[in-house]
Amino acid sequence: MPTKSEISQIVLNAKNGAQDEIRRKYLKELSDYTHRDTILYCSAYTTPQASGAPSEALSLVPGDMQGFMSSLNGLSNDNLDIIIHSPGGSSEAVEQIVQYLRSKYHHIRAIVPQNAMSAATMLACACDEIIMGKHSAIGPIDPQITFPMQNGNLFTATAHSILNEFNQAKTEILANPGVAPLWIPKLANWPAGILDICNNTIQLSKDKVKNWLSSYMFAGQPNGANKADAIAKWLGTFSNHLTHGRPISIAEANSQGLVVIPLEGDQDLQEKVLSVFHASIVTFEVTHCVKIIENQNGVGAFITLNRK
Asked: What is the pTM for the complete model shown?
């Protein structure tokens, strides 16, 4: 297996556009090895090239649906592998993508070469199996909320943190009304209905993951619904993880009952998956591309930024 540095050197020594040829070659070799349709969904969010890029360019967003539709056009296998490297994004976007993928494929595997966090973890939980390496991570599914402040700036926090802060304010004010002036300026920045939004998005994330796990990963199992419920609550409860971006390893995911297959169990598969991933990261490093959605035939969509 060529290392990332070796792939980078191959690209630099070749003609312009070599990064696409090399990445697609590895992607086709992976699909030929597994005999499954294969989709690469990869974001540049862990690379220096992502610095300054808007979050919507790096995250799972509704517009990604077009990329998946382009990538799946003309494919006819019953089985799909999705290589996912993403910080997460919109749970609503994931829901629409899952509906589309599950309408077309009988069996889906999520392959996580490094990180599939937040909403990307939700996407992985809608698959029949998850394949992870010892270095890979999924993450908590507690949603983040972004809203404009009165000063015009955007504020982002986990829904749990917003609810916890409100409860702290309520407790302190009831115990000592004199502290109310300390809390009022902060709470005044919150938009109307924010508490309902937080509660609803938290519940939606848990409900969707529970339903997907029950319908696919644990389908037909006598205690599948109970397992799905327990895992969804574990992934979606902020106090279990304490930070939204906390990495959950393959060992911890397996200990909670998720069906996670070790990438290292098949050395040929591991080499082919990591070659695709390394070639994708090199693509980000030598171009303005910040997101790739592509099938084994080189068909898909690319998100690029115009930089001077």
From this structure: 0.89
